[in-house]
Here is the input.
Amino acid sequence: GDSVTQMEGPVTLSEEAFLTINCTYTATGYPSLFWYVQYPGEGLQLLLKATKADDKGSNKGFEATYRKETTSFHLEKGSVQVSDSAVYFCALPSNTGKLIFGQGTTLQVKP
Amino acid sequence: KAGVTQTPRYLIKTRGQQVTLSCSPISGHRSVSWYQQTPGQGLQFLFEYFSETQRNKGNFPGRFSGRQFSNSRSEMNVSTLELGDSALYLCASSLLGQGLSPNTEAFFGQGTRLTVV
Here is the structure.
């Protein structure tokens, strides 16, 4: 069945460091891919998305490229801030409409 | 445009009781999904409703149920609460099924934090 695998956390970085959170997926066809972010005490917010292979989603300095050859959708940011501390989820929609999430990666950015 | 609204934000219940959680979707959205989030299991899909019909259901016991009203608002109910039901319950709405592809993004509420003691 469809699945999403994210790198294990937590990830701890200093401010202005480069961030990569790995995400790989298994799916039939070529679904859209999403990154959601969950700030402390909040629900999930869509951070960015890509709807087809080779698409690059971007938002708030974060980027992710949909690579079908490696079935990956890694999240990157060139310079993280303390305010980026949150849990990040990679997700893909199944053919039944539900979202399949990775296990989540906690990012802590220290000043 | 108002987002997805979940009420209440926090609940404390005793084992064996039942609880009802409410979700108001974004105006115009007819698909409402529910997820349970726990530290150990992550985000797990409970069920999805569209136009008052349950279309999909996750792998949860029958104690978990839901419904959707004609205005698309949804409720989920958990009967005979167990300690393990303590979790953040998230509701999401989308335009899924309204002439759009399955890749339609979902918008989440802030969740209801349920604690069973």
The two ends of chain A are 41 Å apart (CA to CA). The CA atoms of residues 61 and 110 of chain A lie 18 Å apart.
